[in-house]
Amino acid sequence: MPEQNLTVNGETVAVDAPDDMPLLWVLRDLLGVTSPKYGCGVGVCGACTSHLDGDAFRPCVQTVGETTGREVTTLEGLAADALHPVQQAWIDEDVAQCGFCQAGQLMTAAALLVRNPNPSDADIDEAMSDNVCRCGTYHRIRSAIKRAARG
């Protein structure tokens, strides 16, 4: 197997994995990074959402070969020494119920706020529309994003 070099949460790592291995499996199985969850495997549920060079992406449909040499950030690397504003807002708004989708929701929300620091309800709904929450906490997710935007 070829050695793949990528940066995950600020740390350069080398993994022995075939080019076509989904990055989600590299993260979870080879590197022990567990916040991105396997939900659907086809990029439609959002449970695995992470950042690739700062943009939200789905590592379940991106291969390690496509991410070699790029910056991958998961929830574990979202904030260095304190909670990221979206993490704090999630706590303040009591968003999580089962929690399965929350890492993907948080990573999508963080990417949204970089692109649009003052999103409207419509902006939030559009950005978050591809992240499924089986518990239905969408109204609390929207409230948390608005709270994080206010600072």
From TrEMBL:
Residues 2-78 form the 2Fe-2S ferredoxin-type domain. It holds the Pfam family Fer2_2. One of its GO terms (molecular function) is metal ion binding. CDD domains: fer2. Keywords: 2Fe-2S, Iron, Iron-sulfur, Metal-binding, Oxidoreductase. SUPFAM superfamilies: 2Fe-2S ferredoxin-like, CO dehydrogenase ISP C-domain like. Gene3D superfamilies: 3.10.20.30, [2Fe-2S]-binding domain (1.10.150.120). PANTHER family: BLR6218 PROTEIN, OXIDOREDUCTASE WITH IRON-SULFUR SUBUNIT. This is Isoquinoline 1-oxidoreductase alpha subunit. It comes from Tamaricihabitans halophyticus.
